[in-house]
C-alpha cells in the first residue's frame, strides 16, 4: 500500500463535505469588506483597517465587528457580490454543498432601503453564477431574530414561504439571536405553519443557555439543532438526541471565540461523537472567528484526535443531515465513502 504523502490538511480539503451552519452576512472577508467600503464610504477602509475590525476580545466585540461589517451591505449588488465570493471560498475548501442562513429579520428591521425580494433576487444571481463557476451548490435557510419577537418572525417565515415558490433554493427557516429573550416554545405555532408551507425547520439552541432550550427546539419540530453546547449537561437529552439521530450543527471555533465554551478541552464534540450523536462540523461566521470549514475539520482532527476514518464519518453525517434531495445525497455519500 502506497504511503500517504499528503498532509492532513490536504487530505481533509479533498474530503467531500457539506457546510450546514453558515451565515451569509458572516462570510465577508476583509478583502471583500474593502470592496464594499469603496462602494459606500466617503473614506474607504484600507485592508489593514478592515482586518482590524475582525480583532476583538469578547462576545460584545464580536457583535460590534459583525455590525461594522453588515452595515456596509447597502444594495442588492452587495449581496450578490458576497454570495459569489462565499461560494468561491467554499469550493477552495472542498465543500461540495452549503446550506446558508440569510437574515430576513435584519433586512426587514434595519435595511429600510432594501426589500427582501430584491435581496433574494440578488443572492440568487450570485448563487447561480457561483455554482456555475465553482461547482459548490447552495440552498438558503431564512433566519428570524428570535428576540425581535414572534410577530416579526411570523413576517419573516411568511416571506420565506412566498419566495420559496419562486426560488426552490429557499428550503427552510430558523431562529437565531438571543435565546434567553426569545425562547423557542414561543415559536411553536409559526413553526407549524412553516412546516405546512413545505419548509424545513432548524433552530439555534443551547449555545449560551441551558439544555432546556434544546428540548424546546425539539418540541417545536426543529429537524436540526445549531450549536447544542449545553446538551452535554443533560444525560436524558443526550439519550434522546442519540436515539432520534437529530443532527447537531457544531461550531467549535465559534463557541471558543464567543466565550460560550471555556476551552478547547471543554468542548463536547468528542463526547457527543462517542455517545453516538449525529454531529456535523460547521464554521458559523468564518472570518469573524478566524476559521473556515477546512480549518474546523483540521482543528477537530488534531485537537480531539479523530482518525481520518472518523472524519470521513463526520463528513458523511453532513451529507445525511443536509436538505438535499435523496438522489443527490446518495451520490455525494458514495463519493465520501470512496474517498481515500
TrEMBL record:
Keywords assigned: Hydrolase, Metal-binding, Zinc
Q: What is this protein called?
A: Adenosine deaminase
| Metal-binding keyword on record | yes
Q: Write out the similarity annotation.
A: Belongs to the metallo-dependent hydrolases superfamily. Adenosine and AMP deaminases family.
- From what superkingdom does this record's organism come? Bacteria
* Domain Adenosine deaminase, chain residue ranges per copy: 16-338
**Transmembrane segments in this chain: where?**
none
Q: Which organism is it from?
A: Terriglobus roseus (strain DSM 18391 / NRRL B-41598 / KBS 63)
Note whether Oxidoreductase occurs among the keywords.
no
Query: Which cofactor does the UniProt annotation name?
Result: Zn(2+)
GO molecular function (one): deaminase activity
What Pfam families does the record tag this protein with?
A: A_deaminase
Amino acid at each position: 500500500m502506497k504511503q500517504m504523502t499528503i498532509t492532513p490538511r490536504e487530505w481533509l480539503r479533498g474530503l467531500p463535505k457539506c457546510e450546514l451552519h453558515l451565515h451569509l452576512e458572516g462570510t465577508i472577508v476583509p478583502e471583500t469588506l474593502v470592496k464594499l467600503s469603496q462602494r459606500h464610504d466617503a473614506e474607504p477602509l484600507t485592508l489593514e483597517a478592515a482586518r482590524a475590525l475582525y480583532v476583538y476580545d469578547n462576545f460584545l466585540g464580536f457583535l460590534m465587528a459583525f455590525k461594522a461589517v453588515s452595515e456596509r451591505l447597502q444594495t442588492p449588488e452587495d449581496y450578490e457580490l458576497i454570495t459569489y465570493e462565499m461560494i468561491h471560498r467554499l469550493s477552495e475548501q472542498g465543500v461540495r454543498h452549503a446550506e446558508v442562513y440569510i437574515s430576513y429579520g435584519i433586512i426587514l428591521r434595519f435595511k429600510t432601503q432594501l426589500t427582501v425580494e430584491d435581496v433574494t433576487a440578488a443572492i440568487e444571481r450570485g448563487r447561480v453564477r457561483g455554482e456555475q463557476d465553482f461547482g459548490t451548490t447552495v440552498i438558503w435557510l431564512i433566519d428570524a431574530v428570535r428576540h425581535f419577537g414572534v410577530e416579526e418572525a411570523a413576517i419573516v417565515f411568511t416571506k420565506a414561504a412566498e419566495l420559496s415558490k419562486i426560488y426552490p433554493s429557499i428550503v427552510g427557516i430558523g431562529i437565531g439571536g438571543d435565546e434567553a429573550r426569545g425562547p423557542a416554545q414561543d415559536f411553536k405555532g409559526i413553526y407549524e405553519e412553516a412546516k405546512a408551507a413545505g419548509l424545513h425547520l432548524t433552530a439555534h439552541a443551547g449555545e449560551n443557555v441551558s439544555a432546556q432550550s434544546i428540548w424546546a427546539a425539539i418540541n417545536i419540530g426543529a429537524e436540526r439543532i445549531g450549536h447544542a453546547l449545553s446538551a452535554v449537561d443533560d444525560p436524558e437529552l443526550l439519550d434522546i438526541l442519540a436515539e432520534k439521530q437529530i443532527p447537531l450543527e457544531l461550531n467549535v471555533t465559534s463557541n471558543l471565540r464567543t466565550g460560550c465554551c471555556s476551552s478547547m478541552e471543554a468542548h463536547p464534540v468528542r463526547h457527543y461523537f462517542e455517545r453516538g450523536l449525529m454531529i456535523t462540523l460547521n464554521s458559523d461566521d468564518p472570518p469573524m472567528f478566524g476559521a473556515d470549514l477546512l480549518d474546523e475539520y483540521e482543528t477537530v482532527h488534531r485537537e480531539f484526535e479523530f482518525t481520518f476514518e472518523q472524519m470521513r464519518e463526520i463528513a458523511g453525517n453532513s451529507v445525511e443531515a443536509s436538505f438535499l434531495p435523496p438522489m443527490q445525497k446518495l451520490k455525494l455519500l458514495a463519493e465520501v465513502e470512496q474517498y481515500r
